[in-house]
Amino acid sequence: MSPDVTESAASISTAEPSTLSGSSPNRTPPNRTASTSRPRYGGASDDTPDDVGVVVAMPAYNEEGTVGAVVDAVRPHADLVLVVDDGSDDDTAAEAARTGALVIRHPTNRGYGGALKTIFVEAAAREANHLVVIDADGQHTVSDIPRLVATQVETGANVVIGSRFVEGAATDAPLYRRFGLWVINTLTNLSLGTYRSSQRLSDAQSGFRAYDALVTRSLAADETIGDCMAASLDILYHVHRNGYTTAEVGTTITYDVDHASSQNPITQGFDLLSAIATTTVRDRPLLALGFPGVAVALLGLFVSFFLLAPAASLGLVAALSLVTLSGVGLCGLGFHRHRSTRPSRAGGSVSPSGSGSPHTLPED
């Protein structure tokens, strides 16, 4: 399909989204004036106001069969519906524009995270008060959008997550997927330092989220968010590092839809585990390096001097000594990284089930 598509009165242009160079989490982007230099992408109307209340946005890749129905269902709940067509080779962009969405097209497939970054930049440029991100495949319950926004207003949470695993939630996720989500949720909470049940996120992988204006601007300016599915975790780490608050509300997510995921779940799982490991080493080095180092050092000492010392060969003792030294080295590296990263750390907070005030996440 050609980059220039005309469907009814809507045109779709292949162009880069608005940029917010120099934006910071605590500074509102400068007021923008109508200018022919700013690209318009088609769909709803080229006269959409810059300052909008609720923007509902969805990344889309080869979703021509569902995106139109989702846009239709979303429109009563949004001041602006935004679809980022991430290099689809079908008629996703045309279907989204036909049903009234504002469409931005990536010339090539950049990945889920790449589409999210475009969404954050565009929503921040339009000074959206609330940005709600949903999937374009029909998995999410559109009627829950007002609940996420209302929870954000009532609690003041910067991010509200539609969770599959809190009171009022429902999902038909298969058993293997539930287990995988449990593993990812557990590791994510450990990497965030949320050890108590009252502080944990129940659904770290939910893509159904509402962001307020402050965190939207902050995410738009963050160049460290990755392009793959692990971007959902990168966002949570960003929220935690910058001291933003999070709440959860129960929602219904169904897997009985066509093309519910365009990525192999095994590949996706490895991407997520890699992101958790990388971020934990960077942000919580005592947890990732220090504690394992202590365990390795103690194991080496115990085996060397209490079990094998009387009869062990010199080579075996030397090998075990090397293991012990490796453990000590891990401890030292973990402590050094902890000291060097701690001054820039800030705790975030989470409010399970979206009730009450958000709770503060602990630091190391």
From TrEMBL:
GO molecular function, one term: transferase activity
Entry-linked InterPro entries: Glyco_trans_2-like, Glycosyltransferase_2, Nucleotide-diphossugar_trans
CDD domains noted in UniProt: DPM_DPG-synthase_like
Residue span(s) of domain Glycosyltransferase 2-like: 56-178
Tagged with keyword Disulfide bond: no
Region ranges (Disordered): 1-51, 339-364
Polar residues: compositionally biased ranges: 8-38
Record's keyword terms, sorted: Membrane, Transferase, Transmembrane, Transmembrane helix
Record's compositionally biased regions (Low complexity): 343-358
Transmembrane regions listed in the UniProt entry: 286-308, 314-335
Leader sequence residues: none
Listed name of the protein: Glycosyltransferase family 2 protein
Organism for this UniProt entry: Salinigranum rubrum
